[in-house]
Amino acid sequence: MFLILGVTASGKGALAFELAQRCNGEIISIDSMKVYRRMDIGTAKPSQERRRVVPYHLIDVVEPSEAFSVDPFLHLTRQAIEQIRSCGKPVIAVGGTAMYIKALLYGLFEGPGGDETIRNQLQDRIARQGPQALHTELAQIDPNAAQHIHPNDARRIVRALEVHELTGKPISSFQKQWQGQEKHPWTVIGLRRDKSQESRRINQRVKRMIEQGLVKEVHSLLSEDKPLSSQARAAIGYAEIIEHLQGKMDLADTIEQIKINTRKLAKAQRTWFKTFRDVHWIDIAEEDTLQTVTDRVFPILTETLEKDDI
């Protein structure tokens, strides 16, 4: 099986689409926000035209009002793998949600169970003080976890603080068992660009999302009967536009804040990916095109398919 990872806006989605066309494969999305229906522009989902050409899995599987986590992700991914392989087709997974990728490759760590009272208290504080305040607190007690959790990711901030409250230990200490052997025979490709090139691509993507109607999309989501889940509201692009629609920022400042937060996300992703083993890193130069990158990666995919006997 074949997995493509990379930071946001690295071009991994376009590469996966090209490879899937060449080998008649199907794509599994490893993205914690593409799972939400109607959250299309801000999550950079593949277009409907592409989805008619190549089957995609784990896109549009839950409502924006619902919670989603690594456990249902793994369950749905196993189902998708079985379905694709039963048809004799190659599996191409692609995404940038590092925690999901790591769970897929190495398994889940076993942390303590939850405590509803502690969690409710933390969620009340999130509502009153905002997630950034609790993220600052997390950085003091577990800097390693804080480095990998976005300041707007209320759900993961609450979980990390809950674990510390329950055990007196940082949640990162429970993640050491992820250093074990891989659980699945994945061939992993990583796309890597110069940081300045990546920043330009992020800026271009944010500009394109605004032009495509991100503000209107967020406004429509907020008008739905059921409120957005805390996870959906924390998504980069959506969190900032929500503040804009609440009158807290003008649109120009909002756009710049989305760019800043997306670059912070890319930095966190790079940090995560450095811990991954046996990744075939593909360094992409400014002059490289999708075609040249596809030509470089396709022989690795072909070798993988031969090993998988597909």
Summarize it:
With 310 residues, the chain is of the alpha/beta class. The chain has 14 helices and 6 strands.
Describe the protein:
The protein is α/β, with parallel strands linked by helices. The protein folds into 2 domains: 2-107 and 183-308, P-loop containing nucleotide triphosphate hydrolases (Rossmann fold, 3-Layer(aba) Sandwich), CATH 3.40.50.300; 116-176, Histone, subunit A (Orthogonal Bundle). 55% of the residues lie in helices and 9% in strands. The protein has helices spanning 12-23, 48-53, 70-86, 98-106, 116-129, 131-141, 143-148, 154-167, 195-212, 214-222, 230-233, 238-245, 251-273, 290-308; strands at 2-5, 26-30, 56-57, 91-95, 187-193, 279-284. The protein has a 6-stranded parallel sheet with strand order 3-2-4-1-5-6, sandwiched between helices. Strand 2, helix 2 and strand 3 (56-57) form a beta-alpha-beta unit. The N and C termini lie close together (10 Å).
